[in-house]
Amino acid sequence: MTDDDFTLKVWGARGTLPGCGESQTAFGTETCCVEMRIAGHRLIFDAGTGIVPLGREMAAEGVAAADLFFSHVHYDHIMGFPFFVPLYKPGCAISVSAGHMLDGRSCAETVTDYMRAPFLPITPKVFSAAVDYRSFQPGEVLTPQPGIRISTARLRHPNGAVGYRVEHRGRVAAYVTDTEHEPGETDEAVLALFAGADIVFYDTTYTDAEMAKHRGYGHSSWEEGVRLAQRAGARQLVLFHHSHYRDDAELARIEAEARAVFPDVVAGRTGLAFRLAAPVDRLEGVDGAHD
């Protein structure tokens, strides 16, 4: 990997619950987890069940460091955390960052409160890796590694959530999930995270028609994701945090409907990968690709 590399991979795109049954497999069964590899560094966003296979791969490859960022700590976003293999590897260095807490607890205190009896038989004390817990306030700019800049913003979600904008050498990726839009209004904080981005991950749990029934749940629609991406000039939209009620046929239909409005859209699914091309490459007509 060179200093110019910026790749992304979806390890889990479902929300609330992992996929259940044969009708929820085509888009993957895992909950939220997105990996970004930037200039030799690994950044991970959320620790849903998708982080479990990611951790196994990292251990097999001998990866010794990663930076993990929670959007928030509702169970679907952290249920894989205690099973992330690198945490149990001596010599590994893992930073864990959270900025959504509204009750005064730090990131370390929140993780400790989650990993305790009677919910789990282990606590964070069993970790063999060097774990650096970092707390921040939404709106702060984070610099987890040299040359990597992460802007943050508060999202509209019960108990709080944080959206991220990751920048490196002219490439931009935004990770914005678990946020509720106000019909007829534009969320300026999300718009700023999306502005001119190469790729954006957005909470598309519902459709516009379903929003009224689910007011206050803290989620958005694929139509709003398209509107934001278009207004912000984002190049690619990934539909994310799929409703646990959606089967594969419904997700395929939503993906097709979204593409009819905004061609550069894809429904998130386990294994979906992207490479962000360097700005000079774009001038030569070479764009980021996904497979």
Automatic annotation (TrEMBL):
Q: Where is the Metallo-beta-lactamase domain?
A: 41-242
Give the Pfam families listed for this entry.
Answer: Lactamase_B_2
| Domain of life, per lineage | Bacteria
Q: InterPro entries given for it?
A: Metallo-B-lactamas, RibonucZ/Hydroxyglut_hydro
SUPFAM superfamilies (alphabetical): Metallo-hydrolase/oxidoreductase (SSF56281)
List GO molecular-function terms, semicolon-separated. Answer: 3'-tRNA processing endoribonuclease activity
Q: Which CDD domains match?
A: TaR3-like_MBL-fold (cd07715)
- Listed name of the protein: MBL fold metallo-hydrolase
The organism's lineage? Bacteria, Pseudomonadati, Pseudomonadota, Alphaproteobacteria, Hyphomicrobiales
